[in-house]
Every structure is written in C-alpha cells, then in structure tokens.
Task: structure prediction
Amino acid sequence: MFIFYHEKSRTFHLQNNQISYIMCVLPGGEAAQLYFGKRIHDREDFSYLLEGAVRSHMAYPQESGSGLSLEHIKLEYPSFGTGDFRRGAVEILQKNGSRESSFRFKDYRIMPGKPALTGLPSVYTEEADEAQTLVMTMEDPVSSVLMELYYTIFADEGIIAKSAKIISDSDEEIYLTRAMSLCQDLPDSNYEWMQFSGSWGRERFPVVRPLAVGTTEIESLRGHSSHQENPFVILKRPHTTEASGEAIGFSLIYSGNFSISAQVDPYRVTRILAGINPEWFSWKLDKGESFQTPEAVMVYTEHGLNDLSRIYHNLFRSRLVRGYWRDKERPILINNWEATYFDFNEEKLLKIASRAKECGVELFVLDDGWFGARRSDNAGLGDWVAAKELLPDGIEGLSSKIEALGMKFGLWIEPEMVNPDSDLYRAHPDWALCVPGRTPALGRNQLVLDFSRPEVVDHIHHMIAAILKNSRISYIKWDMNRSITDCLSAALPPERQGEVYHRYILGVYNLYERLIREFPHVLFESCAGGGGRFDPGMLYYAPQTWTSDNTDAAERVKIQYGTSYCYPVVSMGSHVSAVPNHQVGRITPLKTRAETAFFGTFGYELDLNRLSAEEQNEIKEYTSFMKKYRRLIQFGTFYRLQSPFEHNESAWMVVSDDRKQALVGFYRTLGCANVHFSRIVLQGLEPDFCYSVIAGEAVYREKTVKKIESFYGDELMNLGLIVSDGTSGKTGEGIMPPSDFFSSLFLLNACAECPELEN
Ligand code: GLA
Result:
C-alpha cells in the first residue's frame, strides 16, 4: 500500500521507499499541498505545516477562518480569484462573465495500478501492484463544475504522475480557459531551473539559471512541442551535480502548445505549473461533458541528475513506449534522404540498398519524394500514391525487391501536411487550417491539414493504411515539417476555435493509435524537421524519434547529451552521414561519426557506394559492433560524465544491468598540442568488480588485443579512467592522437577471474 488517508485530519500521504507526497483538505474544503520530497514517516496530522500567520493586505475565504489565506498556503490545483494571487491551475469562464471558481473536497477513491487517459498518451502499469492511484473529487457548487484530480505513485521510484479531469454539471455552457496538468508548490526557491532549448539543427541544449522572485517560463505556441523548447524542466539545488544532490523533474506528456512555469512569490514559495498553454486555449463544456488534461510526470531524487535521468529513461522506455518494439533492439537502418534528396529512381535506391546490405544494414528507408508530384518540396504533399515514373512497381514492388535483398523496408510520410499544389488541396481547400479572408502563411511551401476534423484524419488514415496493407513495410518515419499558423478550423463554430490546437494534437494521436493497432509490428519513428516534436507524447506511439536534422558528429554529441536528460538512448534516432556534413560543412572522421551515432538507434544517412573500399570495410566493422553491443547501449543505464557544453572533451557511458559490462564514449572537439594527462571519472560500476579495459580501435578487434589492462570499479569511479597516451596506468599506446573531432570508445568487461564474480 502506498496511499494513506487519515480521516480525522483529512490528510493524504502517498509514500514509497523513496518519496513522500502529502496533502490535506483545509477547513474550507480546499486541497492544500504539504510536502513532496524524500520519504518521511507517516503521521496522523501534518497541519503544523499550514501557515496561519495573519499578514496585512491578505484576503482569506470566510469559511476557513481568518488565519488561512490561500495566498500563503501551498495548494493543489488552485484557481484564481479568491485570495491566492499567484497563477492558477484552472480557470472557468461562466455565463455571467465570472472566471472565478473555488473547488472544495467532495470525496476520494484509491485504486490499484493506473487508469489510462482517453485519447491521450500516458504512462501505464502492467501489473496492479506497480502503482497506486488516488482520485480526489472536488466540486465548485456555484459553477456546478466537478473536478477529478489524479495522482499516481509508482512502487519503487520517486515518480508521481498527475492529471485532472474537469466535468461540467452546469445547465449553462462554460468555457475552460486554463486547465493545467500539474501544480506543484514548493516551500522554498533555492533551485536552479534547467530547461532544454534550441532551434532547428541544435535542439535541447541545457540552459540553467537560478530561480528568483517573479516568473520563469518556457512555452510553445507553435502547435507542436517544438525545437525551441522541450516540455521538460528540472529544478535542481545549486550544489546538485550529475552524481549527487536533490533534483525534481517535470515532464509533460504532450506534443502540442504547452507552458511550464515557476512562479516565486515574495515569501520564496515556488509554484510550478505545467500543462497546455492557456494562451489561445479555451474549451467549451456543455452539461455532462468533461475535459481531460494531459498527464505530467514528476520525478524526485536526492542522487543527482544522472539518477533523475535514469528514472525517466526506465519509466519512458518501459511504461510509456508500448507494443512490439518496446523491448526490442532497434534495426540498423539506411535512409536515402541525404544520399539522394529528391533525385532518385528505383534503380538508384536498389543500388544504395544492396551496398548497405553488404555492410550488414538491416532496414532500408525510403524518405521524402516517392509519391504524387513530389519532385521537390513544392508539390504533391497529401497525395499518398507512389509516383510510377520513379517506382514503376509502386511501393509494393520496391518493398518486395528490398525484402528480396534480405532487408526490411521502411517509408517516410508526412500525413499532417498538404502542398497547395496537390490533388488533395485542389479537392478539399477547406481541409487546410486557414482564416477566411486571410492568406495563410506557408512553411516549406506547405499548409497544415486540419487534423481537428475527424473526416480529414479518416481520409489520411485510409490513404496510409492502404499503403501499409498492400506493401511490405516494417517501419514508418512520420514527419511534420512546419509549425502551425492560421489556426482556424472551417468545421468549428466561433466559440470553439480555442479548441483547435488541442483538437489537432488529439487528431494526430488518434491517427497514430489507429495505425499502431492495425499494424502492430511496424516500427514508427516520429520526426518534425528533426527534433521539433521530441516529446513523451510522441513516444507513446512511436518508440523512437529522429533527434535532429543536424547529423554532424560534433554537434550531435551536444544534441544527444542534452536530449539524454529526459529521453532514453533507445529513443534517439542517430545516423552516420557524409562529409563535408550537409548542415554545417564540417569534416569529421568516419569513426567519430559512428561512435556518436552508436549512442542511439544507429543507422546511416548517406550512399555507401560513394565511400572508398577501406571506408566500406570500416562501415562493416561499425555495423557488426553495433549489432554486438546494441542491447547494452539501448537498454543499459546511461550516465553523462563530462559535458560538451562545458568542456572540449566530453564523455558518456552505458552500463549493463548486472554491471558486468560498460561502454564509454569519449569525444574531443578540438585537438591541442602538448595536452594534459586527462582522466574521466566513471559512474555506475560495481566498486569491487575488476574490469578489463579495451580502448580505441581495438574495441572493433577485441580478439586481437594482446595485453589488456584491468582496474577495479572503485578505481575507475574515483581515480578515473585515463584517457591520455603515455605514462603508467595507460589504457593503450597511440590511441589518443591530438586531432580535432576525435573520439574513442572504452569497452569494460568484468574480468572472469574477478574474485567478486566468483562468489
Ligand atoms: C525533414 C526531416 C528529414 C527529411 C526531410 C524530407 O526535414 O527531418 O529527415 O525526412 O524532412 O523532406
């Protein structure tokens, strides 16, 4: 049992071995937050935590007695207007023009496991004893609105999932103008706020700043979670490092417009709000109708940022991602986009595929340009029928030919979009989002289909399902290449236009859900001009995401490092591409490109025929290395060791569950002369195990290595792993040339003769 209710004090305590989450019902019926953090003892009454001091200028609800001003109490899912002057979690516009509401406790229920959210992605349980859920029902008698607040505590880790359902019992229509997923009041503000920001080609770079009085916020108003901000924030104590210290993560399982904010009041109380962005949002509710918010997942740890990431990685990898591919090693693929762009025909594709097959690649992916009049990005989007002039036997024929080569076949689609120059648009101009009388903005020459309309989703479903049914398709790359503008639906009345952004995302989720149910063995990879929709919402449907269009190795180390704070390695699409790199023009060694891409799903984004015979042999080595170690890499525990945002030399590692094997990736951006004697302190090993260390190119030819050095886990985690050539303690001579864009792997195996292993 994880959830206790103390009847007398009306106190709830959600508790496991790691954390406690405590709240109570105030005398006036409002729900107050008392504590969230490391596990503490249970007791009957925690009301000593309620601040009752009388201050001038405060307002207080008459029912609560003069001491309890809502402004000075930490609250669950508060509303604005009755004395709490901070931002609220819910706002309801009523017929009389009032936006005020005041919710009072009605009843509660506790259930095993965790209920799913209708139409929305969420984390789940497989067995009832993995978690327990509290549902607290609140009521605002004046507006006749009910609210169900959901709290799930997981059995073994510091995880709380929250969401809210707002139900109208009012005879009059009401409008939700704010319905956040999570409100978390914390008793102090001694935190650093960590967000993951960027733009196309440089997604999810950490940005850290101390909290201060006032509001700190990230948001998206682009219709997708965006390249610019990610729906994930960490609050960490100033002294917290990767390996130690308190941190709390806030992750929103949503792919549309969002906001996450921290409001610090003058009493140093911090209020975190996360949910659908209230800007441009409103939702009409008639009597009996309800609105379910997306889910937010909070994680608490006292063991540093790597531990926070470990908890999110495990949760998302095993209880957010679903289906056939969840626990499977991901196929090594080759994608033709950077190899051909729009300039291909079947013959060219088969040549690329054949060479890739020789190099051990398992899946061939045909990217953009295979359908309708899509010979450039000017036309054809929306017409999901193969172009016969390129593919005489259609996708059916090509996919069979690829399978005949001994590879699986995958296909690119961008189902949410339409080019004005397309048969679809000519037939249904009103299916694109657009404001009557205004010329809609174009993005990459395309408009956004109105996925808030079921008939639009149905039509696209029909087209895509037909291709999947008739061809041999094992993988789909689902792209989304522009942000939403002109967000008006021709199918909705004026008072419902505030619903379009959210209905759009519900339409996307609906299409995904239908396709993954009908084609459960197809592996979906989501994409939005690279990582413009790398969010947990997408992971519920597509187990992997194309991390970024930027495939340069040096840039990718940063992008993957930043992405790893929340998202597991196995979810990050990562490919080796050609040099000079197409995004930044940089030339990096093939080895560095491979050793960066290994820490993801791994694949290729170039024509291997254009490489020299020597390079092709290298490719074979990389492919077979990945096959050998992908279980370790994709399902082991990942640790960030040294940040590329702070150092010229950076490193990360993965460790197997039994801690007998580990792989360290070390990356140097620029070479320097006469370098220092450097070492990297490792994490996650077994202190008493003795590990053999193979470094550099030898990892690809393990059997030929004559003398292997070995070190105890505690040496490697305290003294560190030597990553320089020369002097004693070396891990190999001549493996660390001082060149630019250099990388090296270090493979650690617990030695068979290790005394600890024998016991
Ligand atoms: C987006 C994707 C790329 C590629 C192109 C095709 O930019 O991120 O990987 O699929 O679209 O147009």
Notes: The pocket of alpha-D-galactopyranose is lined by residues 337, 367-368, 412, 479, 481, 527, 529-530, 546, 549 (CB under 6 Å). The first helix runs from residue 305 to 319. The domain at 640-751 is CATH 2.60.40.1180 (Immunoglobulin-like).
